[in-house]
Design a protein that fits this description.
Shape: globular
Helix content: 40-55%
Strand content: under 5%
Number of helices: 2
Distance between the termini: 30 Å
């Protein structure tokens, strides 16, 4: 179980949306720091909500 808004939570949410790799660098998301993963999460959530 990951705490809400932790790195693990963001990873879980992105994987549920089908994102497993960074869109530009094509590396696993687990290799990135939390602020980069958080940015990807909010970019994807904003796209799906519009």
């Amino acid at each position: 179980m990951a705490y809400k808004y932790s790195k693990g939570w963001y990873l879980k949410e992105l994987k549920e949306m089908g994102i497993t790799k960074h869109p530009v660098e094509l590396k696993k998301l687990e290799l990135y720091r939390t602020f980069i993963i958080r940015k990807l999460y909010f970019e994807h959530v904003e796209k799906t909500n519009q």
